[in-house]
């Protein structure tokens, strides 16, 4: 992807972009500063736009560039390229820069890895309007054969993530340059339903009675509020409202970066039950002097990966409970609220769902496991109805 970087030896900014399938770096005289980065970005945006439109004059923009000789050597090969639509690497780079302002940093990094590491190398040099459906399907087959660091193949969800980005790029190109996208009619891979295994009431008590003392309130609050991992990681004391017994979910912490919640519906107030309220009172005695509610010994926010590996999984092993990731505590909260008879709309609001659809689709089937209700109550009622009918005869 095109970018602005700084040279360590001079402290000056340089542009890094691709032109005619060649990676180009152009030095500026701008020292690294927010204002100069903005100037450099404006220049880079103009360069990228002109490249896409086929009107970029490298010599006029960078008259003293050392890249000119290298570019002149390739000119005879691509003299007709200006009349063609841009190739994949050029347009993908433009599409990325136009859309990255909408994304979180973590998602931007993920998209960068997929486009630079997978999409561009596979379709390099091919004009966007000449990419065929066969090539797109070949790309999917290629992705399906890739392996992660642990040797496992990429999951269908991961493969679909690659294909979703490719689809977005091709559809946007088709819309801009008036051709029919080859991606039409290609369906995503089937993804198995999420493995949701909420904890039973007995398991919750077993965990809270045997966990490390300094993590009891952490686990209790997760079990009884349904907060997402990034939400509890990013919970600050200023968002804990003791007077009204509310937890204000306003920020999340993702890979050390404070950012907006997952979506607008996630901006919410979670009601504190009595156990949760008391747990926060105990936490207040321990961490009130820090910005975040849950911190390590240095006063920094907890690293959920470290908690999972060094505290959570060892605890489950010691208690001989089935291995489940900490996110199952959120699922447990939803099922407990359903069992207690709370309004589905209220539960959806507490969970940060936009509506009750996910609540019924995902969680309702687990309620019998907690209530031990398997239709016996209805069977008893039906039997009574039939008996009363026979008496009337």
Description:
The protein has helices spanning 34-53, 58-61, 68-75, 88-99, 105-123, 133-144, 156-177, 201-210, 216-225, 229-233, 274-287, 304-318, 328-340, 344-351, 357-363, 367-371, 376-392; strands spanning 3-6, 12-19, 22-31, 240-241, 246-249, 252-254, 257-259, 268-271. The chain is mainly alpha-helical and 393 residues long. The chain has three domains: 1-83, no CATH class; 87-192, DNA polymerase, domain 1 (Orthogonal Bundle), CATH 1.10.150.130; 201-371, Intergrase catalytic core (hpI Integrase, Chain A). The strands form three sheets. The chain has a three-stranded antiparallel sheet, covered by helices on one side. A three-stranded antiparallel sheet has the order 4-5-8. Strand 6 (252-254) and strand 7 form a beta hairpin. The longest helix is centred in the middle third of the chain and has 22 residues, at 156-177.
């Amino acid at each position: 992807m095109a970018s602005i970087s700084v040279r360590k030896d001079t402290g000056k900014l340089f542009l890094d972009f691709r032109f005619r399938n060649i990676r180009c770096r152009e030095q500026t005289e701008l020292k690294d500063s927010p204002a100069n980065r903005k100037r450099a970005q404006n220049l880079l945006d103009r360069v990228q736009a002109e490249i896409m439109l086929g009107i970029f004059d490298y010599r006029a923009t960078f008259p003293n560039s050392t890249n000119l000789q290298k570019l002149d050597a390739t000119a005879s090969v691509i003299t007709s390229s200006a009349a063609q639509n841009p190739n994949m690497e050029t347009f993908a780079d433009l599409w990325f820069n136009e859309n990255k302002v909408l994304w979180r940093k973590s998602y931007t990094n993920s998209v960068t890895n997929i486009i630079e590491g997978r999409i561009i190398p596979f379709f390099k040099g091919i004009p966007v309007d000449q990419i065929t459906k066969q090539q797109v399907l070949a790309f999917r087959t290629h992705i399906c054969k890739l392996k992660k660091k642990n040797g496992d193949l990429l999951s269908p969800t991961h493969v679909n993530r690659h294909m979703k980005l490719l689809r977005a790029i091709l559809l946007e190109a088709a819309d801009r340059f008036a051709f029919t996208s080859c991606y039409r009619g290609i369906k995503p891979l089937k993804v198995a339903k999420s493995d949701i295994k909420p904890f039973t009431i007995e398991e919750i008590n077993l965990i809270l009675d045997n966990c490390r003392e300094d993590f009891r309130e952490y686990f209790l609050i997760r079990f009884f509020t349904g907060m997402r991992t990034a939400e509890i990681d990013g919970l600050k004391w200023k968002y804990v409202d003791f007077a009204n017994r509310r937890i204000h979910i306003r920020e999340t912490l993702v890979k050390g970066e404070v950012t907006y919640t997952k979506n607008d519906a996630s901006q919410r107030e979670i009601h504190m039950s009595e156990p949760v309220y008391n747990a926060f009172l105990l936490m207040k005695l321990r961490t009130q002097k820090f910005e975040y509610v849950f911190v390590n010994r240095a006063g920094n926010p907890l690293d959920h990966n470290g908690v999972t590996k060094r505290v959570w999984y060892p605890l489950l092993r010691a208690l001989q409970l089935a291995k489940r990731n900490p996110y199952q505590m959120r699922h447990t909260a939803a099922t407990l609220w359903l069992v207690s008879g709370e309004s589905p709309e209220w539960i959806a609001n507490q969970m940060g769902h936009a509506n009750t659809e996910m609540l019924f689709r995902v969680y309702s089937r687990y309620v019998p496991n907690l209530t031990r209700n398997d239709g016996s109550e209805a069977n008893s009622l039906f039997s009574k109805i039939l008996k009363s009918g026979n008496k009337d005869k």
